[in-house]
Amino acid sequence: MTSRLRTFAAWPVAALLALLAVAAHARPPAEGGWIKIENPPPITVGGKTYTPSCSGYPGTDPRFSFWARRGTSKNLMVYFEGGGACWDSFSCTFPIAGLPPQVPQLFVPQIAPDTDPARIGGIFDTTRVDNPVRDWNIVYIPYCTGDLHGGSATRTYANVGHPVFPLPSTFEIQHRGFDNFMVALDWMKKNLDKPRRLLVTGVSAGGYGATFNAPWLARAYRTAQISVLADASQGVTTPAFDAGLPGRGSWNLQFEPRVFPDGTSIAGNDFARRLAEGLPRAKVAQFTTTSDLVQIQFYDLIRQFYPPGGSCPDPSVDWTRQMTDKVQSDAASTPNFRFYIASGTYHTLLRDDLFYDEASPGIRFADWLGLMLSNRGGTQGQGGRWFNVACPDCLVPVSCP
Question: Which of 308, 313, 332 is nearest to 240 (CA)?
Fold first, then answer.
């Protein structure tokens, strides 16, 4: 454990924190009618009670809230926030909570007090005429449970030696991301019109939340034209992590049974393809940079604790090779799946000006998403107007040093 901790702490964690936290770009609040649904009560669906909660990490605020904005169209975007993950005693001992740069920081344990979707840029900037969702209804689901928005479990972890916060020898984490989502979905169904078009999206951990929970939204809105976009959520993990407890099994992920009947056994990087197959009338897409620093560092940590990884010992090359091979294979075999691969190492683009500025050959990302949402090209075949995008060298095979 000590050697692994030393390896992880040697990373440029300050850069990881800056990217992982996906800090909002402050701007004057735009008109649009944002409301905050604070500390909503539990709900009961099908005889099961869902109690919303943040992680309950010692010293943090356990209350869960979410936001909604009423637009002028009959379309709806459901956005899942990012913020790392935790799945065992090591990862759950280190939250993102103002720790010094040399300390590993792995998950967001509570909703940040200054969270305000009205002050976020990118796809949330409804003042821009080139924003394809500028007049949509939007529901913003924060992330504070360490479980990719899919868990429904209470786990006890051991303190592996936190250098800043005084922790008990053991502590509980509420992995209640799915419970939070169900409470938000109940509110949507009661307070918003049924959408004509539905975009389910999110960044980093939120991209997985969008992928896992899109089938539940499809069930709720059966007549909607559905698009699912996962930003920086490629799922390159290891079989031991995917099958293990601890590991992904710590979260007790709640899978919609018709689309993911065998969800606990699906490889981490195969959920997008399985979603596209399970919802053949939907559009499913993934965005990433070719050397996403945050995804690579999480993958490196996972393969150290849950080996083995891929065939290359260099984690950057290993992750990039697996990612590019998988998205190309999925696009070739699945007619309603597309990808957009940009150059660089940055992590996510939906929440800042990269949403408008990223322009791999042929098309800006915001325009590409607009084609996806407008249904140009439909979902069949690779020759339609909604097409795969990659920078010139992004799909060139990478050799292992």
Answer: 308
Q: Which residues contact 199 (CB under 8 A, 6 or more apart)?
A: 75, 76, 77, 78, 133, 136, 227, 228, 229, 373
202-232 CB burial, b ≥16 within 10 A, e <16: bbbbbbbbbbbbbbbbbeebeebbbbbbbbb
pLDDT value of residue 19? 38
CB 287 within 8 A of CB 281: no
Question: C-alpha angle with apex 36: 186 to 121, nearest 5 degrees?
Answer: 110
Among 236, 333, 327, 224, smallest CA distance to 285 is for 327
Cα–Cα distance for residue pair 51/25, rounded to 1 Å: 31
Let me know: does 97 contact 144? Beta carbons within 8 Å. Answer: no
Pairing of strands 43-45, 137-141: unpaired
Q: Topology of domain 2-390, per CATH?
A: Rossmann fold (3.40.50)
| Domain residue spans of the chain | 2-390
The values of phi and psi at residue 39, to 5°, are 45, 55
- Amino acid identity for residue 92 in this structure: C
Beta bridge partners of 153: 175
Average pLDDT of each block of 10 consecutive residues along the chain (401 residues)?
38 39 36 86 96 95 97 97 97 81 84 93 97 98 98 97 86 98 98 97 98 98 97 98 95 98 97 98 97 96 96 96 98 96 97 96 93 74 76 93 87
What stretch of H or E contains 219? helix 205-220
